[in-house]
Design brief:
The complex is a heterodimer of chains A (410) and B (148).
Chain A (H helix, E strand, L loop, with lengths): L1 E5 L3 H10 L7 E6 L11 H5 L15 H4 L2 E5 L3 E5 L4 E4 L4 E3 L2 E4 L3 E3 L13 E2 L4 H10 L6 E4 L3 H10 L6 E5 L11 H13 L2 E5 L3 E5 L2 E4 L5 E3 L2 E4 L3 E3 L2 H5 L8 E2 L11 E3 L4 E5 L4 E3 L4 H15 L12 E6 L2 E7 L4 E7 L2 E8 L2 E8 L6 H8 L9 H6 L8 H8 L4
Parallel strand pairs in A: 1-2, 1-7, 2-3, 7-19, 9-16, 10-11, 10-16, 11-12, 18-20
Antiparallel strand pairs in A: 4-5, 5-6, 8-17, 13-14, 14-15, 20-21, 22-23, 23-26, 24-25, 25-26
Helix pairs in contact in A: 1-8
Chain B lengths: L2 E4 L9 H11 L19 E3 L8 E3 L8 H5 L5 E3 L5 E3 L9 H5 L5 E3 L6 E3 L12 H5 L5 E4 L3
Antiparallel strand pairs in B: 1-8, 2-3, 4-5, 6-7
Classes of the chains: A alpha/beta (410), B alpha+beta (148).
């Protein structure tokens, strides 16, 4: 059996590690256009702020590929998949045949057309190690940085570079920062904390026109000068290979709960894949590192002839800025129990007798006990929710349920 | 692999395990030297049930077979040893606390400096060598043994 994996990040690593629990013999080839040993993508901001190093960013040890019997072709782009001949074609003219193929191609920055953008010299995205290296070269204490996009990527970039540049201005068309994970009230708390660090936010606005080192905003008409531009407006899944091969593609590559695409023997996982989200009951891209692992794991086991399924994926996120931490999961619907005090912000969302989501800012210890309630759709009648509403604790479970958790191997 | 298991019916709620955990990981040679310094070292085991509760038990890492923390770690800082223990590499940890978000036991927590996570490694990462909490539990409310 020969396995080919396109991509070399979380989903690919998960596929390798779990595939090998079923098939120790088959050959595995990993092909990626990135020339690096696998690394934790979201750690790039931490590297810029000195909280980790390039060496420590390695997602797995140096001997990982060797230990798992993987041949790597790094720094080479795959240009096409031929699903009838079961080969992938590389840009260097080589071909690689496969019995089972995983597409783990991730996503790329989405840069909307903006007038004059081509004339901006120092412009960057912030998703990869190469992005990080390029950005780092232009950082210096007097530089003014303009970040377009107040989402997870844009603001982690802000945190990463804050101590290494002068002024940072963030512009976003949304009415609040971090709109994908926070409601308005929660976003206001984090915005205030970032503002205390000297970051300026201009919301409800977007770039109309760039002229060299200057941008004019559309709604306010404001002009902002900058030395460095970071565009972090959004991402697009890399679906083209599967689409051109005739596979079913929506916003992401459509996969079933086994991570199978519509093409035979081709699987997809990670940020390029659109799988089942149990919090909404529909397919969507959940571009989160843990989800990339879960999906890659399921793909790997199934590719090797085992049986695995992912039916309980939910959105969830842990992110921090300057010592504040935001942990969120699920959906923000139904009855809301809130506790807000100073920089502490806690909201639990209960619907149809189940915890369906939460937002925890700066009060997050043992949050995983909540996450499990959301993920497993636990009937709150089975637990003492008054205890849980106060703080996450296993005391809220019945003695019998607790025994299963703490008195046997899990 | 031997793991720590809970005998809830025997737990007195005395919190000795927490202090023994702090001591084991403090690097200090005498318990009395912890006086006034316990806040510098957070315990990796936690007793549930307050003063008014009839029920008490201690919770620390279960070293899960399919450990969701290991699968979720954004930095590759959490891993499983060949024996099955979940270990954390503090140098790789960036302190995002995704592990705190996913651990269904609430058994992984920020370290005292808040910059990285910490968790029970069965005292393999200190000079004690085997779980100090179990060794000093006065009532066998936690045990260290092989179970299925």
């Amino acid at each position: 059996m020969k396995y080919v994996i396109i991509g070399n990040s979380t989903a690919a690593v998960a596929c390798i590690e779990n595939l090998r629990t079923v098939d120790r013999e088959g050959s595995i080839v990993v092909i990626s256009d990135e020339p690096h040993h696998c690394y934790g993508r979201p750690t790039i901001s931490y590297c810029l702020m000195g909280a980790t190093s390039r060496e420590n960013m390695k997602y797995r040890p140096d001997d990982f590929y060797q230990k798992y019997g993987v041949t790597t072709k790094l720094g080479v782009k795959v240009t096409a998949i031929d699903p009838s001949a079961k080969i992938v074609k590389l840009e260097n003219g080589e071909e690689e045949s496969y019995d089972k193929l995983l597409v783990a191609t991730g996503s790329r920055p989405f840069v909307p057309p903006m007038e004059g953008l081509d004339g901006v010299k120092n412009k960057f995205s912030f998703m990869t190690m190469d992005d990080m290296d390029a950005l780092e070269k232009v950082l210096s204490p007097k530089k003014k940085v303009l970040v377009i996009g107040a989402g997870l990527i844009g603001l982690k970039c802000v945190e990463g570079i804050a101590e290494r540049v002068g002024k940072i201005t963030v512009v976003d068309l949304a009415d609040r920062i971090l709109p994908s994970i926070l409601d308005s009230e929660g976003a206001a708390i984090i915005q205030r904390q970032l503002e205390e660090k000297g970051v300026e936010f201009i919301l409800n606005d977007c770039a109309q026109r760039f002229e060299g080192k200057k941008v004019t905003l559309k709604n306010s008409g404001r002009e902002i000068s900058f030395d460095v531009l970071v565009v972090a407006v959004g991402v697009r899944a890399n679906t083209e290979l599967v689409k051109e091969a005739g596979g079913n593609v929506n916003r992401g590559i459509v996969v079933d709960t086994h991570m199978r695409t519509s093409l035979p023997d081709i699987y997809a996982a990670g940020d390029c894949a659109e799988g089942y989200d149990s919090s909404t009951g529909s397919n969507r891209i959940l571009a989160l590192l843990p989800n990339a692992y879960f999906q890659g794991r399921v793909a790997g086991i199934n590719m090797a002839g085992g049986e695995a399924e992912q039916t309980n994926a939910i959105p969830m996120n842990a992110i921090g800025f300057f010592g504040s931490h935001i942990l969120t999961a699920g959906v923000y619907e139904g009855e809301c129990l809130s506790h807000i005090q100073g920089s502490i912000y806690k909201k639990l969302f209960v619907k149809d007798g189940r915890l369906v989501g939460f937002i925890l800012i700066n009060d997050f210890l043992r949050a995983g006990i909540y996450t499990q309630l959301v993920r497993d759709k636990v009937d709150l009648a089975e637990v003492d929710f008054s205890l849980l509403a106060d703080h996450p604790q296993l005391l809220a479970y019945s003695r019998e349920a607790r025994k299963k958790k703490l008195s046997r191997k899990v | 692999m031997k793991r720590i298991y809970v005998n809830e019916e025997w737990c007195l709620g005395c919190h000795m395990c927490e202090y023994e955990c702090i001591f084991a990981n403090s690097g200090l040679d005498e318990m009395f030297k912890l006086k006034g310094r316990t806040k510098e070292f957070g315990p990796r085991i936690q007793v549930e049930g307050g003063d008014n509760s009839n029920v008490h038990f201690a919770v620390n890492c279960r070293h899960c077979t399919n450990a969701i923390c290991v699968q979720s770690c954004i930095a590759g800082a959490l891993s499983k040893t060949d024996e099955g223990m979940v270990r954390i590499d503090k140098n790789k940890c960036v302190g995002c606390f995704t592990c705190v978000l996913v651990c269904p036991f609430g058994a992984i927590m920020p370290g005292p400096d808040g910059k990285s996570a910490q968790k029970c490694m069965l005292c393999t990462d200190n000079l004690i060598g085997e779980p100090n909490c179990v060794k000093h539990c006065p009532n066998n409310a936690i045990v260290y043994e092989e179970r299925d």
